[in-house]
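Appendix B. Chain record.
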Amino acid sequence: MKRSERSAGGRATAPQRCVLIVDDEVDILELIELTLLRMGLDVERAMSVKEALAQLNSRHFDLCLTDMRLPDGTGIEIVDHITRGNLDLPVAVITAHGNTENAVAALKSGAFDYLAKPVGLDQLRTLVKSALSLPKANEAKVAEQAQGEKGLLGESQAIQNVRALIEKLARSEAPVHITGESGSGKELAARLIHQKSARRDRPFVPVNCGAIPENLMESEFFGYKKGAFTGADADRDGFFQAANGGTLFLDEVADLPLPMQVKLLRSIQEKKARKVGSTQEDAVDVRIISATHQNLADCVESGKFRHDLYYRLNVIELRMPALRDMREDIPAIAGAILDKLAAQARVPLPQLEQDAMQALMQYDFPGNVRELENILERAMALCDGAHVTQADLQLTPPEAVEIVPVSEGGNGKWPLQEYLDRVEKEAILEALEKTRYNRTAAAKLLGITFRAMRYRMERLGIN
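Structure tokens predicted for this chain:
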């Protein structure tokens, strides 16, 4: 029995957790081993892929740290062996400084995280603590069954695929990019990844990138020091500091202006953030999950989004299905929404009549689950209290708005600004009607950003 498994009095104690470190450089092995021993962990060494695989096949480990370049292969081979064997073992890869391709390849293969050489001991300790706090796969499954899955309802193949990928992503530190139409549950998926991860006890900070004025972005993301600018009367943390140790969710990330994309890329690469007005950078431990309803690859092609930031954020993509692609789940989702709305309003749960359910099953839901919730909330206000009928849903598409030409009535085209404002207002109202007043979808229809849409609505007095 190992010394770690027996107390001074000779009684058996719980075995210490053991880490396998794989590197062909003795000095790095010794540095990492000493650090881990001081953390109270047992350590085993291997200096090649062959040695590492033999060790993994002979005993249980709680964590594996491997160099990328080894005499007889690469660290990816070790990651693949652990993944294929379902060893329930987090593995982190040590890469050369600045080698983004190797880091991304490791994460896509299933690595928990990566470290860049020279290895920073603070980052090493943080990674090890985070990896060892992951729940075992069987424990997570038992806990999930006891609580019941929250939010992602349904049994369609599309939603089952999403659940399976979320389980995998939760056991990694890889950046995730979530795609899908507006209202399809991108933030809900991000929250589930966070809640099932080693960071579950730390903050989840959601940020709508399209809702922050450009001149405030740097101070909102990174914070500022007292006196950095007029009105900065005290130090203030930004989103990165608020999410330290947890997850930063960047919604509508495609709306970030290019100068902010440069600053964001640096913080992600260096794992550091500099407050406005500060002369030094502070270390931040943040997992990035991003989302957008736009096609980010198209934004890269058009020059609206940086190529290097795209590859940093889009390591693994999670696509949320549209509600019309999982119609068989509509009854379960509608029932859960009605149950929630009735509980919030403290009224008896109304019954969804068969004609109403049939109408919902045939509707296309351009606004997805968010639109379904809005429809049912309106229906509850219109129904008799006991039954929701098809008429209560009001699913008939809105009639096309007849727009009277602004040139009628003589000099309708001047003053010019009034004429342009009327044209712009009519176009926005028509887009809102067509998207059932979903502002994000209306902005997409008009070919403008959500931020520009919001500004124009405020300027034109559209509520």
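Further analysis of this model is presented in Appendix C.
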